[in-house]
Please model this.
Amino acid sequence: AMWSPLLFKSLVRLGAPEGEARARVANAQPAAQRATLKKGLDGAELLEVLEPFDRAWRRVGLALDRVGFTVEDRDRQKGVYFVRYADPQAELAGKDKGLLARLAFWRDDKPKVKAEQYRVSVTSADESSRVQVLDSKGAAESSPTASRILALLHEQLK
Model:
């Protein structure tokens, strides 16, 4: 377990016996994660953020910005960010490249990864908030790309 010499010294200075101080420091829990990835009832992944809607909405907006999503629009009333995301992994999975296209490595015009539109939905759930990725029409999205978007947001929000 990680333990902090500073915490140890201050416990000893406060009069805790050395052995007890060591035990207390060893049991000090790291801060709980503020966001966890879960599977929803429909099987689609979601991100549970342990914060009320207002804070979660603001933090998701900042996270989208930091990760480099293009936020085209937002609707705070509905809790939705309209974003564009070009998934580099999806491009690698595109196996419909013909043999000639694959052999034409000398061409500069590499196919660009097409940015798809998604909706990042933030909803209030008791004391916490739920973040989900929806497709451009607002239906639950359970593609590998949606999972990657949630994973990127989780990195920023945890």
About this structure: The two ends are 20 Å apart (CA to CA). The helical segments are 5-13, 18-26, 53-67, 88-93, 99-103, 144-157. The first strand starts at residue 35 and ends at 39. The CA atoms of residues 38 and 95 lie 30 Å apart.
